[in-house]
Amino acid sequence: MDRFRRGEKRTANSLGSAFVVPGFDSASGRDATSLAAMGMIAASMGNLSGAFHDRRTKRAADDHPINCLLNRPNVDETRFQFFHASAMDYFNSGNVYWYKWDNGEGETVALYRIDPNRVVVKRDAFNRKVFATDGREFRSDKILHIPSRHGYDGLKGRSVFSEYGHVFRLSAELDDYVNNSFNNGVGNRLVIDITRHLPDAGEDDIRRIKEMFIQNYAGIKNAGKPVIKSNKIEYSAIETKTPTNQANQLLENRQHQEREMAKLFGIPLSLLNGTETAHVESLYILYIEGAIRPIATQFEQSINGLLPRHQRGRLYYEFSYNSLMKTSLTTRINSYARQLTNAVLSPNEIRRKENLPEVEGGDTLFLPSNLMPLRPDVIDAYMAGAKLKLAEMNTDSPGTAGSHSNMGDDKGA
Question: What ranges do the domains of the chain cover?
Answer without folding.
Answer: 1-185+248-325, 189-238
